[in-house]
Amino acid sequence: MLSRSLFTLLLIGAPAIALAQGAATQSQLDEISARGRALAGYQRAAWTASAELLATNPDPSKVQRYIAYHADSGWVVAFGRLSAERDTFYVSHIGIPAAVNGQRVDSHFEFQTFPEPGPDTDFLVRAARAIDNAVMSLGATSRPYTAAAIPTEKGEWFVYLIPAANVASVWPLGDDVRYRISADGDRVLETRRMHAGMVEEAASARSDGALLAVGRHRTAIHDEPEDSDVFHVLVRRPPAPQVIVTRHFQYVIGVDGSIRLAQGQETVVGATR
């Protein structure tokens, strides 16, 4: 939870925003938090496991892509290739969170390697097809994107396409899309563009040399935070809360991914403008 001491709340005679119609309910904000946490977990596992596996110089013909999924041991990453017919995903390696002092961690992975890649014709192949269809829907871009396919409660897929960082310590936020894809991975059911434009935010410091305690951005399209807003707060280093400014509201995302609606016309000390 956010520490109250991080903020000075100056209510400037305006009615409480929470009473305004159209603000996201706390239940809706909690659902956004849950999706953002899942996205962050997926991407952290994929980044870490990919770096560790590539350091072993695997056969590139067998390791062409990855799919992460949540299991009892945490976020697991399957590496392999999709068949030309797009009906089989051949798994060459599986990265599992390593056991450290009896606990599974997402900062290091143990790998199971298959001399002959094992075929999957269900979960992994459907996820791979869903990602392919999202990428085709997005079209050509001027910079690389990262992809994540996460199953929904209804058995469909949320596929996130998010610009990849191409400079150390710079966090590209914006121009990201969430697609809802059919369970078989073959049809795009809904497209949600999450942000307009892009902010490339460096880990910046104040004039006194201290790191900023709070970030702030205004790239929202909708009147509530996005899953990727939570993702960016959770993966950013050093960690910092974020103020999300929409057309009518302000929300604060804590470093644990929780979201709250800011009350009234708040001024948040330490926020970038």
Q: How many H/I helices?
A: 3
Q: Given the helix and strand composition, which structural class is it?
A: alpha+beta
Proportion of strand residues: 25-35%
Low-confidence region ranges: 1-20, 204-213, 265-273
How many strands in all? 14
Shape: globular
Instruction: Let me know the largest β-sheet.
Output: 4 strands, antiparallel
Strand order, biggest sheet?
A: 1-2-3-4
What is the helical fraction, as a range of percent? 10-25%
Series of secondary-structure elements, N-terminal to C-terminal: HEEEEHEEEEEEEHEEE
What's the overall average pLDDT, rounded? 84
**Span from first to last CA?**
23 Å
* Gyration radius from CA atoms, angstroms: 20 Å
Structure description:
This protein is an alpha+beta fold and 273 residues long. It has a domain at 1-23 and 209-273. 20% of the residues lie in helices and 35% in strands. It has 3 helices and 14 strands. The strands form 4 sheets. A 4-stranded antiparallel β-sheet has the order 1-2-3-4. It has a 4-stranded antiparallel β-sheet with strand order 5-6-8-9, with helices on both faces. Strand 2 (74-82) and strand 3 form a beta hairpin. The longest helix is centred in the N-terminal third of the chain and has 29 residues, at 26-54. The two termini are 23 Å apart.
